[in-house]
Amino acid sequence: MYNLRRSLPFLLCALLTTTILRAQSTGANFFEAGITKSKTGDFMGALQAFSMAIGANPENAPSYYNRGLAKAMLKDHRGAILDYDRAIELNGKDALAYLSRGVSKSKQDDYRAALMDFSRAIELAPDDAQAYYNRGVSRSRLEQYRGALQDFSRTIELDPNNAPALYARGITKQKLDDYAGSLPDFSKVIELNPKRAQAYAGRGASLIQLAQYQKAIEDLNKAIELAPEDGESFYNRGFAKSKLEDYKGALRDYDRAITIDGTHYQAYYGRGFSRGKMGDQKGAIQDFNTAIEINNANVETKVVYNGKISRAVLDELRNAVQQRNKIDALTSERSEAYFNRAISRNKMNDIKGATADLNKAIELNPTYSEAYFTRGLIRSQQGDQKGAIQDCNNAIQLDSKYAEVYYVRGLIRHSLGDENGGCLDLSKAGELGYTPSYKAISDYCN
Fold first, then answer.
1. Coil, strand or helix: which one is 69?
2. Which residue range is the domain that position 319 belongs to?
3. How many domains does the chain have?
4. What is the spatial distance between Cα 171 and Cα 140, in angstroms, rounded to a whole number?
5. Residue of 40, 230, 404, 433 with fewest CB within 10 Å of its CB?
6. Are residue 135 and residue 259 in the same domain, yes or no?
7. Per the domain annotation, does 7 fall within a domain?
8. Are residues 327 and 287 in the same domain?
9. Cα(27)–Cα(18) distance, rounded to whole angstroms?
10. 263 to each of 221, 287, 306, 308, how far by Cα in Å?
């Protein structure tokens, strides 16, 4: 006789196993779709596919890693770091995850944390030239030039024709006053890539330090030919010409350097010097005054601080948000009617009436996330950003997948000086499918 009681645990186990296998199979399909989209450059589509893969199988480290790569390609490095964190938590032996997280941390100017990630990547993959190069860049940013020099040299040992590493080592040698030692590195870069203007500029700068001014001018001529908007090359060529007492030629170069970069105080100084040598003492004094005042911490000047997202920018970005305003069934307490009347009143610039209706809608239905969000938008329009954030918080608490709320809260937080919190909100909005977030991230989070 069939014993249902004895067979029930087996049936439940079989059912659970089948469900897990189906989820894993579905997750694998989404993962493959994400890889395909990444290869074609559809990083937004890849992000969504990897999110679906994670939903189906939340313990799969490669899904988090690849979603992180997609976010990084969309310049959402804060969001990428969170995904790399989870990938590493699930698989702490993945050198690429540490390497990629280090790159994203570098993009956020967190060079100390990046250096630690690159070091861990090197421990796990000691022959990865890219990891040494990236660690060298982080060390340079931290002014650890001797350590950077070792890393760039190791990169070149592993990859002798690595032009970026050769150029970086040349620059690092300049930082260590080894100008003669930098010349072979810049020359090798030029041999590998004769069109690389920076290599000519770098070699020209070293030749100036070695008092080889005519040779420096020849290199700087080539640098300017290849990159005619490089103000530093014009400045250096002007300096070399000054050393050769060609003050007229130097003056033209300093003029061009200042046209390209009006804050180049060294160029004002050089131009003032040349003007003085040519008898224009009034012009020289004006240039010296400017050289003293620009970006000088010892000169008292009025400083105006403006965030990347000003009030005008915030208004423009926020007001472009399309609200969820689809018709819902009218419930007995009529909160939907108050909400929609508020929308209409707001469009007629009846801010007071719109706010009163939203307050009533929320009073009648305290779980009305759209009403909180709309009231938050109006508060932000009226300059009450803290009140707007509170309304956005409530909307998110009620609906954690409300992408537009994360977007608006991110804009407001960023405008108030919380760049990290604001950009993380923008990242979350993008992850949830609100694509305008990635334009804001590109413009204001990097």
1. helix
2. 311-444
3. 3
4. 10
5. 40
6. yes
7. no
8. no
9. 14
10. 23, 12, 18, 20
Instruction: Please say which residue of 60, 76, 91 terminates a domain.
Output: 91
Same domain, 154 and 275: yes
Q: Is 121 contained in some domain?
A: no
146 and 278 both lie in a single domain: yes
* 349 φ/ψ angles, rounded to the nearest 5 degrees: 65, 20
SS (H, E, C) 87-111: HHHHCCCCHHHHHHHHHHHHHCCCH
pLDDT by residue for the chain (446 residues), tens only, comes to 444 445 555 544 554 445 444 555 577 889 999 999 999 999 999 999 999 999 999 999 999 999 999 999 999 999 999 999 999 999 999 999 999 999 999 999 999 999 999 999 999 999 999 999 999 999 999 999 999 999 999 999 999 999 999 999 999 999 999 999 999 999 999 999 999 999 999 999 999 999 999 999 999 999 999 999 999 999 999 999 999 999 999 999 999 999 999 989 899 989 988 988 898 898 888 988 888 888 765 554 432 224 577 888 888 888 888 766 565 677 788 888 888 888 888 888 999 998 998 999 899 999 999 999 999 999 999 888 889 999 999 999 999 999 999 999 999 998 888 888 999 999 999 999 999 999 999 898 87
The separation between CA 181 and the C-alpha centre of its own chain, rounded to angstroms, equals 34
Shared domain for 71 and 174, answered yes or no, is no
pTM of the predicted structure, to 2 decimals: 0.74
